[in-house]
């Protein structure tokens, strides 16, 4: 069962925006549905420009960080960039490395091993790595907001730490030299939607400006920061940051760079993954990001950074092929765990009487659990936490639905957790095995307390009712002008009624290709359609009362035709 909700935007506002930006009322309705309530905002949304980026100079601690990094560059101090092992962390690391190397800085980077070391900057990284390498300054990316012990250890050894992060932060920040996080309660920049790579980019913007003011670029060619936007697009989309405002601008510019073949490593990855020539945000989410993430999930993510930094085609091809192999391995492990969980739930259906799912096993691969948890959430529409047990400790990943704040749910159980951190929709958690049963009860109580009955049925938000007579090439072009789609800016969904199925055939394992027409039956209103993972009981149905669908261009061999992608019937 799914809850269908048809948006009802203010008609006066829709008409006003439609006139102001000269778009169809349907497109104006979609803009209002996305929270765009003024003609100016609508114009900026449809006409993406880097000039519309808000200034980064008001981010808390930015000036402190810039001055310290400038001194480190000038004095040739040893700088270490410490990144996370996911796509956001990997792209953030590559972004800072590329800029710092351009300045001639003595810089290196470190990505921890997900399984052996776990998440974030830890005390052992200071004592075992930074001290032995003579590091003077550490800059974290996409992590560090909870690294209190590591910061204390660094202080004792006279190593300065600058934290750049975008995760939810507690009131008690680490006592680092600077904590650059737009999510700080005392940061008034308004940039809290940035991914970790976006925060790193804004640090670079401020640093380049300071270097310019100090006449540094008199001796070095000043870099064009626009060339880093491909990295921002990768990290932002992969981390499911809202594709609005700054994220939308930077991702669109980044996609254009990726499609122009700007970076050798990304080109090699596209070739290895047999990706199409013109990518969009969906391709990043489902083709590129999983391959980059696979390195950190089943091996070490260092080679993923090397792929993004290398200018050697041979090196890039080798790493990209290796990524493909690791991604295949990841898929196999993921399927095995997922099948295991589904089988267990089928044999123990009482589990679904609870409004959350918490499971653990000693044989599960902890690097894959986040993906599996997402699949379980999609299937059962409730918060999920999965643990991999090892010795006396279980490390897990949680995923949630839009109605339940996972981070707050874990915070309600913090007294029995060893550690946790993340976002409202995704988080990591560590617990003693003996406390898992108690956690199940406390977490279930947190879910029940902060949800209601309808929250446990998936919601589908419909942008507009649309007759097939209204579909045209120009209309599909206008829909494409709303790209990139993703979190915060979902691809529009339309409702049509009284649809005839003129032909239908199964393609692949469980997809259906159809020829659809509306009640008018006009030849020009007949469209090709595809439905993924369809209900096989409907294969012989030749009339559909109501259909939810997306509209896209289907590009093939230099040609393009309008295609309906069926979402729900």
Question: Can you offer a commentary on this structure?
Answer:
This protein is α/β, with parallel strands linked by helices. The chain folds into 3 domains: 3-47 and 460-568, OB fold (Dihydrolipoamide Acetyltransferase, E2P), CATH 2.40.50.460; 56-321, inorganic pyrophosphatase (n-terminal core); 348-456, Diaminopimelate Epimerase, Chain A, domain 1, CATH 3.10.310. It is 40% helix and 20% strand. It has helices at residues 11-21, 25-33, 39-46, 62-74, 87-103, 123-130, 148-156, 196-213, 229-238, 245-259, 264-272, 281-298, 302-309, 313-347, 369-380, 406-411, 436-449, 473-480; strands at 3-6, 78-83, 106-110, 137-141, 160-164, 178-180, 357-361, 384-390, 393-399, 419-422, 426-432, 459-462, 464-465, 494-507, 511-517, 526-531, 543-556, 559-568. The strands form 4 sheets. Strands 3-2-4-5-6 form a 5-stranded parallel sheet, sandwiched between helices. A 5-stranded mixed sheet has the order 7-8-9-11-10. It has a 5-stranded mixed barrel with strand order 14-15-16-18-17. Helix 8 (196-213) packs antiparallel against helix 9 (229-238). The radius of gyration is 25 Å and the shape is globular. It starts with a strand and ends with a strand. The mean pLDDT is 92.
